[in-house]
Amino acid sequence: MDASVVIPARDEGSRLERTLDSLIAQTFDGRFEVIVVASGTRTLAVARAHPIVDRALIDDSRMGPGTARNRGAAAATGDILLFTDADTVVPPPWVRRHCRHYATPSVAGVGGPLRPLAGGPAHRVRFRLLSDWWYRISWPLGFVQQPGSNCSVRRSAFEAVDGFDESLSFLEDTDLSLRLCETGSVVYDSGCPVRTSVRRHEREGYLPLLLAYLVGYLEYALPGRSPMRDHFS
Description:
By secondary structure, the protein is α/β, with parallel strands linked by helices. It contains nine helices and ten strands. It is globular, with a radius of gyration of 16 Å.
């Protein structure tokens, strides 16, 4: 099966280059393309110059990651859509590990854990708790959350649920995951981590971020409420 990697990139520059370098090292046996949806002159220049990028799209909406991901998915040609972020580094078997799950026809999506790209033991412990063990506990209970920087979707399932909800600037990846469950199973692959930036955690702090997520989860669960916020815009 063919795969497409979609990367939303807003004013990332050198961080995007590191992400793209990690995609060159993929051990996937099939064909995959890389689509960057970029905003910012420097970011767009990096995307256009990098040899792994097949298409560099200009993101002039400035609306949010869901909009950029949907635009990249609309331009993609692969049977499997993989999503990561421009401040994330993926391991060599990343595309292959995601795609192998889709040999099972009932699988609609796949998600994996996050690891810190930099920092000491404190970052590693906190990421392990919040971006791995939390998933291991919540997924069996039906609260499925594919992280936007480490997820994939079968194209037919993505189109069946109309992709990411562009009205959401927060928890748009969780929202997609829960809607995908209506079309098939969503798998958590604990052995397929990616490394991502800790800049937001250092800037805002782990506790405030955790509280923001908890409030967002509660708003999402309550009838008539949604996680509409500009917290991560």
